[in-house]
Fold this protein.
Amino acid sequence: MNEPSQHLNAMRAAAPLVQNITNYVAMNVMANVMLAAGASPAMVHARGEAAEFAGIASALSINIGTLDDEWADCMALAANAAGSSGTPWVLDPVAVGATALRRHVAARLLGLGPTVIRGNASEILALAGVAAHGRGVDATDPVAAAEAAARDLAAQSGAVVAVTGAVDFVTDGSRAVRIANGDPIMPLVTALGCSLTGIVAAFAAVAPPFDATVAALAYYGAAGEVAAHDAKGPGSFQVAFLDALHAMTGAKLDAMARITAA
């Protein structure tokens, strides 16, 4: 696997156009995060253009956070179009275990072959069909509890699976690594997890899925550590985090990244 700086630099050089079908809560935060990182976000979800746009985008991210039947259909149309055009796409199965609707939509999208699946431990366990203890969008399962399920899900789906938490776990079913970057204040800011899915998609536009996911998570966590150093709380952290994403250099990322084989 290459150093994460190579993928960060490649992403910034390409400034990939990333289509994001995400939730209402996350749109503004996610767009700002992706712009700060160097990508070009587009929040395109309408039935009349979602599939067409997926055919021209560099990558697609799908987040089922604020779900309804109309958006579910548009997500499937975009995912199918991405698959047909060879466009990488990332599935974020938010609170998938909470309701029958979420389980149905997530299963439908899983069947369309996501390139990467990113979720917390409870979401990955639920998507894999294993009993989980999620509370809405919050995980109450530790990352370690979902590692075996993540390996199985990756092997069965063909996707790279990322379980994010205090120490992230990424696997393609055969290889696996842990990424220990990040800061405890990050979960206290709404939509940062959703925004990470867009960052993974941006990296996947320019690098192989496994390498892209690992580099994206290391980059995001390292920026969080930088931002937390001077932040006084969640409010000032949000501003500092955008600045840290923008200012992060490849050399600093390589020096900060804590990636180990699992």
User: Anything to note?
Assistant: The mean pLDDT is 95. Residues 209-230 form the longest helix (22 residues).
